[in-house]
Amino acid sequence: MKISILTLGCKVNKYESDALIFELKNRGFETSDKLEKADAFIINTCAVTNEAEKKSRQMIERARKCNPNAKIYIMGCASQNRPQQFEGHDVTFLIGTAGKKKLLDELEKQGQEIFELPENYEDDLYSAQTLSRAFIKIQDGCNNFCTYCIIPYLRGRSRSRKIESVVDEVSRLPENVKEVVLVGIDVSDFRENGEKALGRLLQNLDKFNKRLRLSSMEDNLIDETFLKTLKSLKNFCPHFHLSLQSGSDSVLKKMNRKYTTKEFEKSVDAIRKYFPNAGITTDIIVGFPTETEKEFEETLNFVKKVKFSQLHIFPYSKREGTAASKIYKDLSGKIKAERLKQLEAVGKVLKSEFIQNNLNGNLLVEEKNGEFCEGYTENYIKCYIKGNFKVGDIVKVKFEKLYKDGALVIQSL
Prior knowledge:
alpha/beta
């Protein structure tokens, strides 16, 4: 029996899907992570926006085109949020965000079962890593309850994996894996015995001679103690994805973000004190309900002031059940689209400036595509290089010119 697992959404979903593939292989199934003919499809869904849920439903129809008689299994945030949206799609079995390993035990069952969200980290699935960069899940859930976000209701409260469990998984990574990316719903809240412990985890992982990278983090993680810890590591990649969401203090307050722009800027300044060439990327929501033209201008000006290396921009998406959906009236799609376009133009300029001024590092070759090898530097600049390099090679490079979504580089001897 061949089972294909199709994944939408974040890196946490990708890790969990890869872990299910590994477990299925151990149980003797033929597996795939591609949209191709299979006897059954497991669709790992996303609910971060309305569009993400729509794509999750559409994936069922795309799978059906590969095999009209295939069994369809649904899991993830969209099914946790609204399992009824999959009615009428001839789904064989459905679960939510919890108990993913249990799904594998129910491959002959029909119906649905939404398991209770756990209080402790579910540490029963491990991913088999085969690429040069490995994603390792260390945390799940979120306690922040930003007014626009549905995820805390779907993933539950924040809970952390044991340090020894993470260390054990990294210790078993194959030699060709040269970079480890620590992922979670709120990596900043990684704890051990109730105390924040992300720095301690990184210190335990630094011995493996693999580049260490953090995924999205919150402003409250950044302080002198944490930055000194990072600076002491020999393998840390100076790339900080700090989620801003808005450059307007009044909008941040309505979002229930727990910092001001002044505090955020102070964190950025502290990062650059220790890592002058750090890549500092961010997420921004445009068109939050009640966002005025003046407040949007504040975001534009703040983004230019901070000089982010890259922007990830999203139009606000109303999520039923969140505080924002109950309190505020949504803005028009036209306003959101116009603001998105303006901010994208600013982001393009900032990204180009950062690449030209900060590209002088080591490229990890992640894939070969025609005449080019592709990958990222430590500070997260996408690079393209010609040459006879292998996936997994780390090449010292320097900037030649802007190219596609990054830079064309040459080897620096």
